[in-house]
Here is the input.
Amino acid sequence: MAENIHPIFNRLLQRSDKEQQLGQKSKALWFTGLSGSGKSTIAQHLERKLYNEGFFVQVLDGDNIRAGINNNLSFSPEDRAENIRRIAEIAKLYLNTGVITLNSFISPTKAIRAKAKEIIGAEDFIEIFINTPLEVCEARDVKGLYKKARKGEIKGFTGIDAPYEAPETPALNVKTAKKSIDKSVEEIFEYIFPLITAEKS
Here is the structure.
């Protein structure tokens, strides 16, 4: 019953206290793109770069989350929406502890991403479109998923028999088809560095 829930957020240490201790500004970077676009690989390399620069970061990745907290969800439209809702709530918890999160999820529809943005907060939600054409993603097919989808072994696969709605105005549009991982990571790092760097007192 909602009337029996009494959050104590206002009595806890605040986000600003934790950001000050960590020496950074927490943000939620939201990587969206087709399967095989490079989201997870870019997030992994960016995590290492941020760590080496002294930032405290947590990666939230689609496969990892579905193997754990969301292992009861399918890939139906309803469960996809619930998957992203839960992730956004987790990212918000990290945000309030001063941690920068790198969220790597296909999140195929504008509505799903809008919900994540609403939960996290527009001022802290940084949408990064890993913009890789379907034919490039399918050629990579590192997990063999496109091949299975083409054979009909996977139903509702984004880009094949389920839609992907590309962001119209992402914070950053990273075109990876003719760009190395390092170049893509550097592009993102240069964009977010001023946003996550704490002001010196």
